[in-house]
Design brief:
Elements (H helix, E strand, L loop, with lengths): L2 H20 L9 H12 L5 E6 L7 E7 L5 E5 L6 H18 L4 E6 L8 H10 L2 E4 L3 H11 L1
Helix pairs in contact: 2-5, 3-4
């Protein structure tokens, strides 16, 4: 083996080690926020479309977890990210604003799990600023009040 081969092998190991820290482990337990949202839909006998692509004014392919059409359509995203929530909320702040500019009647909703996610004040502020419904999963009255606006 030559020295160059050892150097390339070592660089490959370093690259793999860096990727290991970037991966977010899969959630071993079920997403309680998503389960709560599904229960609220079931309680009201609503069948939303899942993983729908919506079109914003600039971004034409924004995927949301749930979509209900109605007098005021509802787009709902369940936050699944456990760490790095600020970057995630900054992305969704842009997406919700873009969707709203294209469809001003759209109800924007996000539901999260504060027990299993690392939330900071900035992330919560962004969510409250861009969503008409932004709450933890256990505030089912808030979610139901938002669903009442769709019908």
């Amino acid at each position: 083996m030559e020295g160059v081969d050892i150097q390339i092998f070592a660089e490959a190991l370093v690259s793999i080690a860096h990727l290991f820290y970037r991966i977010e482990p899969e959630i071993t337990s079920q997403n309680v926020a998503d389960d709560a949202v599904q229960r609220v839909f079931g309680k009201r006998s609503l069948q939303p479309k899942r993983n729908v692509l919506l079109s914003g004014k600039l971004e034409k392919r924004i995927r949301v977890d749930y979509f209900l059409s109605g007098k005021r359509p509802l787009a709902l995203e369940v936050v699944k990210r456990r760490k790095d929530v600020l970057a995630y909320m900054e992305q969704w702040g842009w997406r919700w604003t873009d969707l709203h500019e294209n469809n001003p009647t759209l109800l924007r909703a996000m539901v999260y799990d504060p027990d299993n996610q690392q939330w900071d004040e900035d992330s919560l502020t962004i969510g409250k600023a861009v969503c008409e419904i932004f709450c933890p999963y256990f505030e089912q009255d808030t979610i139901e009040a938002g669903l009442a606006q769709v019908a």
